[in-house]
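worker-3 :: picked Protein MgtC
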Amino acid sequence: MGAAVEAEQLLRLVIGMAAGLVIGWQRTVRHKNVGIRTFGLVGLGTAAVSSLFSETLHPDAASRIVQGVLTGIGFLGAGLIIRRNNDLMPHGLTTAAAIWVTAALGCAAGLGHWQVAGAATVLALVLLFLDHSVERWVAGRPPPPKELRDDGPKAD
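worker-3 :: tokens ->
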């Protein structure tokens, strides 16, 4: 393998991992249970697996890899979703969705789609920095009373 090819492979891995680190950083800042290391590993792993097969040389294999990764990562995300006894609402949905998006970002990076990986990372961050107060404002609902707020670490 030539030096240019090896450098591009390394760049694909670094970009996949960086996308995961950025998303994980946001989850850590929000005091969620899943953070930088987990998201970084998801980005790196999916970039590594998808970079094994080039779309130009192995289009069917690349497609199958991406399909398998995005299906399989759903099981990891499902493990993050919980429902507490006293609460009808499930928790962890946003983190599960962020794990799935991170896998997609890793796949994009692994296949060399830099613009998609970069733009989607920025858009994911924008969405993740929106909080429930924006959703309540859009729905026309007031914020919950202070005594009902749970400001501690959460999976969602």
